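Q: Give me the 3D complex with coenzyme A.
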Amino acid sequence: MSTTVQCEASGGIAILTLNRPDKLNAINYEMADTLLALMDILEADAAIGAVIITGSGDKAFSAGADIAEFSESVRRGPAVGVRDFVRRGQSMTARMEAFPKPIIAAVNGIAFGGGCEVTEAVHIALASERATFAKPEIKLGMPPTFGGTQRLSRLAGRKRALELLLTGETFGPARALEMGLVNKVVPHEELLPAARALASRILHHSPLAIASIIAAVTRGLNVSIAEGLLVESEQFGRMAPTNDLREGIDAWIARRPAVFQGT
Ligand code: COA
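A: Here is the predicted complex, encoded as structure tokens.
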């Protein structure tokens, strides 16, 4: 498989490292396709319960979509630009958003453009004190294309998102935290250990319940509350006949730790 993303797994956690450090881990088509292929593999792998995404090198998480590459597609006309660049990037972030196992971004440096959009799309994000963020697409004369006009406004509110989208200005981890773009800011050296520790806390629980909660929140966020409550009922209906729900309740009654099998 392509070297644009490294994948290593231990203790039920897969770490995906965006790996084009000489290009600040810019997301080219190969990297997006590799991420999509790896997510298919990791979804099917019962030994993997959570995923961490980070960037290689000491500078960047990702400086966004590969400008040199996508500009070629754009030059070939709108249809090619939308097909090869926009839809591919949107598929990648949508897959992350709806992935049935928790994805945690460990934002280790520059997270501009597509790097910021990945941070928006994943379930939980931790930022190093060295992380910097920006929505710089406007400087290229274009709107963001990997969901960046949609998810930030849902996360941070319309006015805060529009200020960042319309100025393209860089902001630091404290602002990202205040806006709800990241969950926590940690010292740089503690970033990966903190992401692992967080993933491990989640992994104690039933993988079926985890998937169910991710699905209910992700689907429910973009519909009315009445429809969202239907999604919630449906998710509970799926969990009700499972061994994991029975085990969770039996363990609580017996005052013993639950052991979930994912069945
Ligand atoms: N696409 C393609 N290549 C990129 C890239 C991107 N988004 N971001 C950085 N690179 C490449 C640079 O071309 C350079 O490669 P080169 O040495 O072969 O020319 C290398 O990564 C290092 O980048 P450089 O610009 O020299 O680093 P810097 O520290 O001076 O600046 C940034 C860092 C992030 C401010 C700057 O790289 C930048 O503005 N990148 C584009 C950010 C962006 O607009 N992203 C949204 C795209 S839609």
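A quick observation: The chain has two domains: 5-203, 207-254.
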